[in-house]
Write a structure and sequence with these properties.
The complex is a heterodimer of chains A (133) and B (222).
Chain A lengths: L10 E5 L8 E7 L4 E5 L6 E4 L3 E7 L8 H11 L1 H7 L1 H13 L3 H29 L1
Antiparallel strand pairs in A: 1-2, 1-5, 2-3, 3-4
Chain B lengths: L5 E3 L2 E2 L3 H8 L1 H7 L11 H7 L32 E5 L8 E7 L5 E4 L2 H4 L4 E3 L4 E7 L27 H4 L12 H20 L3 H6 L16
Antiparallel strand pairs in B: 1-2, 3-4, 3-7, 4-5, 5-6
Chain lengths: 133, 222
């Protein structure tokens, strides 16, 4: 199978290890075989090992090491935020974050809702079974 | 005093009465109303002059500590109306409402009694998880409840006759005094209305907390 996501200038990646864990960044330059220069609208441009990045499908159109304002504009033009949040990967992460931030009362309400949903499903199933019989 | 002259070794020239008169102590006595004036001995001077005992090592005497213990610090996450999870004791796992901190440092909590069976009770801060859920306890008056309210009644020991000593003591079942039941109702009344206003809060307070498979308490937000 051919590779689909390449390390290139403009590739959007997710940091998967370290201080900036979970942050969406853009590769703006390649330092050497192992490291890239990354940048994001709310952080200082820095170098990072490729092993700490997970590449995404999103790519933006920038030249090598753009100015911060240029980068921000390019990200808005490519609509990175929405593309990310609508992708299944992005959606998964949002749900994970939400679940981790639930407090004890929220978890209790979720439990009640799941029981209710399960009951409704079983009712419907019973009805269908009765109809099929 | 002039040395008394001697006739020979051990024999004085003057008689006893003669030397007594010569010394003149009788005149000084007469001047001071019959008693010979004695110099006043100052106790401090006398003691300091020659202590009876010298210790072998120079040791500083121990001073009693003047340090006063601080009142128990209340965790910043615990404010009046916070829902707490009790971690130990008869009501382990119950979710209760915090009312105030007593002078002894213990926390005053209530179920409310109608919802989960926990009465007005004292609880130690260390055996409690504070959740971020708060109940509105406006209108709840806990001013008169303090540590003395929870003091045990002193049992009066009746003298037993010899026969009765070997009988098992008939324990008088202690019933809650009426005023405590009234206090419970008063404290809970305003709170229950506020609780019923929030959906699911009543069932939440009625349910016990427990850890399930996959729960990581160090990662859970309470």
């Amino acid at each position: 199978m051919p590779f689909k996501r390449f390390v290139e200038i403009g590739r959007v990646a997710l940091v998967n290890y370290g201080k900036d864990y979970g942050r969406l960044v853009v590769i703006v330059d390649v330092v050497d075989q192992n490291r890239a220069l990354i940048d994001a609208p709310d952080m200082v441009r820095c170098q990072i090992n490729f092993k700490r990045l997970s590449l995404t499908d999103i790519k933006i159109d920038i030249k090598r090491v753009p100015k911060k304002t240029t980068l921000i504009k390019a990200m808005e033009d490519a609509d990175v935020k929405n593309k990310w949040e609508n992708s299944s990967w992005g959606k998964k992460l949002i749900v994970q974050k939400r679940r981790a931030s639930l407090n004890d009362f929220d978890r209790f309400k979720v439990m009640l809702a799941r029981i209710k949903r399960g009951g409704a499903i079983r009712q419907e199933l019973a009805k269908l079974k009765k109809a099929a019989a | 005093m002039a040395p008394t002259s001697k006739l020979s070794h051990g024999i004085k020239k003057a008689s006893r009465s003669h030397t007594y008169h010569r010394r003149g102590l009788w005149a000084i006595k007469a001047k001071h109303g019959g008693a010979f004036p004695k110099a006043k001995k100052t106790d401090a001077a006398a003691a300091a002059a020659a202590p009876k005992f010298y210790p072998a090592d120079d040791v500083k005497p121990r001073q009693p500590s003047t340090r006063k213990p601080n009142p128990t610090k209340l965790r910043s996450s615990i404010t009046p109306g916070t829902v707490l999870i009790l971690l130990a004791g008869r009501f382990m796992g119950k979710r209760v409402v915090f009312l105030k901190q007593l002078k002894s440092g213990l926390l005053l909590v209530t179920g409310p009694y109608k919802i989960n069976g926990v009465p007005i009770r004292r609880v130690n801060q260390a055996y409690v998880i504070a959740t971020s859920t708060k109940v509105d306890i406006f209108g709840v008056d806990v001013e008169k409840i303090n540590d003395k309210y929870f003091a045990r009644d002193k049992k009066k020991k009746a003298k037993k006759t010899e026969g009765e000593l070997f009988e098992t003591e008939k324990e008088a079942t202690k019933d809650l005094p009426e005023f405590k039941k009234e206090d419970q109702k008063a404290v809970d009344a305003a709170m229950i209305k506020a609780i019923e206003a929030v959906p699911d809060l009543k069932t939440y307070l009625g349910a016990r907390f427990s850890l399930r498979d996959g729960d990581k308490p160090h990662e859970m937000v309470f």
